[in-house]
Amino acid sequence: MAHHVLDMPATEAEIRALRIGDTVTLRRWLFGIRDATLIHMFDRGRQTRLDLDGHAVIHTAPNVHRVPVSNEAPVGFAPFCIGTTTSMRMERFTDALMEREGVRLIVGKGGMGPATLDAFARRGGAYLAIVGGAAALETTWIETIVDVDLDDLHPESLWQFAIRDFGPLLVGMDSHGGSLFADVQRDVAARRDAVIASLENAR
Which CA distances in Å does 113 have to 56, 61, 108, 169, 179? Predict the structure, then answer.
C-alpha cells in the first residue's frame, strides 16, 4: 500500500498506478457534481463550459453562502459545509462521464458497482472513498469556490473548488478490477451462508 499526492489534473498513467488500499491526497482542483447535474448533462444533452478532462469529481450538493464577489469569492459563493453523498445511485453515468468529459477520479461515499468498475478498467479511473459524516473536515480542505456552471440546478450545480491537500482518501476501486466494496459483499455473503448452514445443522 502506498500514498499518492496528485496535482490535478492527473494522467491515465498516474491513475492506473493506484491500487485498492492505497491512499490519495488531491491538490489544486476538484469538481462537485450530483444527480441532477448528471441527469441534465447526459439525459438532457446539456454541455458544460468547465474542463473536467483528467480531473476528479466529488458527489456533493454543497451548502454554500452567497457573498459579495471578491478575490476570496470570485463567483459570489463561499463554502459553508461541503459533504459527500452516496455514490451508487449515480452508477449509470460513470462511463459517459469518463468518455465525454475525461473524468479520471470519483470521490464519494459507499462505493459503486460493476458498471463503474468496468469503466475504470477500460478508461483508467478510480474511486476514492470518504467516510460518512466527515463533511466538516472536508470543508476545511476547500479553499475557494472558483467557478460554477449549470447554476439553475442549484445546489446541484457543477462546482469548481480550489483545494488544499484534500485527503487522505482511500482507493476503494481501481482500474485493475479491484473493489474493496465487492470484497466486503463477498465476505458478508460467505459469512451469512456459514451462519445459515450452522443453524440448519443445529436443528
Answer: 18, 21, 13, 19, 9
- Identify the CA nearest to 104 among candidates 88, 128, 131: 128
- Distance in angstroms (rounded) separating the CA atoms of residues 39 and 127: 20
Where do the DSSP E strands lie in the chain?
Answer: 3-7, 23-33, 56-59, 63-66, 77-81, 105-108, 126-129, 142-149, 158-173
Q: What is the pLDDT of residues 94-137, one digit of tens each?
A: 999 999 999 999 999 999 999 999 999 999 999 999 987 888 89
pTM of this prediction? 0.90
Q: For the residues of 109-135, what is the DSSP string, one character each?
A: BS---HHHHHHHHHHT-EEEE--TT-H
Helix (H, G, I), strand (E, B) or coil at 82: coil
